[in-house]
Description:
By secondary structure, this protein is an alpha/beta fold. The protein has helices spanning 2-20, 42-50, 65-77, 91-98, 122-126, 155-162, 168-177, 183-187, 213-222, 238-241, 243-254; strands spanning 27-31, 55-58, 83-88, 105-111, 142-143, 149-151, 181-182, 200-205, 228-231.
Amino acid sequence: MFKFAAAVALAGALLSGAAFAQPAKPTVVLVHGAFADSSSWNGVVEILRKDGFSVVAAANPLRSVSNDAAYVSDVVGSIAGPVVLVGHSYGGQVISTAANGHDNVRSLVYVAAFAPDAGESVADLAGKFPGGTLSGALAAPVKLSAGGVDLYIDQAKFHDQFASDVPAEQAALMAAAQRPVTEAALTEKSGEPAWKKLPSWFVYGTGDKNIPAAALGFMAERAGSKRTVVVDGASHVVMVSHPEKVAELIEEAAK
């Protein structure tokens, strides 16, 4: 009887150890785009954390593709274990570059995001299909003492242009806190993109006025998207207005 009980106890310990030996969930690294900041991911972060994921919402500098990608690459390099890289808008070009050279990046998720091919810029892709109205919604450029200009969306036009499906009061706060992007970042050509080697997922809305839905669909198909979620009527900040749909797709990519 003692031997049987001991055997049962040992089996239980081994099973318990096996449970602890299961691979940890990937860390999700979220990269915001132009005219947004890390808080734009708050709703998504809340869901992911509740579901047991470690999350880093990186502060994208928005200075240049090479500079921003190097920063995100450093963030990824500091993480032990697998990573899912998620980019919004211009952040899609950043993650496409930052993932290169990192064996721990398992998948890419593009949230209303650019996925340029080598030699393409965000500006090139934005003008490839009709329907985008960003240029008419920009405020006067802010000249930088080091050269170049910063671009902002006119706060009075921010709600309609950027976040039409977000409550007006929330959109006003987002407009005031928006992070500018340099014009140079939007015209910098991409290098060889990581989506050619890594599996990718896409989600965007049909009401996006920054990147026309046709352009987003084109990029998703070209990248061989594992699954593309199109949210009817969603604005450019689909992660703010529909965090549950975005989080669900990220969790799918994390598997």
